[in-house]
Amino acid sequence: MIGQALHFRYFHSTNVPSAIDRYTDEVRRVYGVIEMALAERREAIIMELDQENAASYSQGLTPLSQSRYFDYPIWLVGDRVTIADLCFVTWNYVVDRIGIDLKAEFPEVYKWTKHMMRRPAVLRALKGSE
Q: From which domain of life does this come (predicted)?
């Protein structure tokens, strides 16, 4: 969807606002689904690892953001990065070009992307080396 949005915004021979809007909206929908999945995984990880404060989080007395595990890496599948995560790296790297601000609109996706961008192999791949 990001590729389609980029195509219609920058490369299509004629300006088709409805196509740009359609694909940009679809990208937002997909990121919304990923955002919820990552947020649910983060909550589960915090509840599992921070058991001494779990009751306070569950009762809404303490925000999850106060957990020492709040910045713990969260992945789409399991407890380590997989191809399911990595296939988003290049798209997350350019999504701002279609007017989507991951940090403002999808904070969990933004944190997830930051964790992937810290990986040396990801940085090398984006630079085109090795």
A: Eukaryota
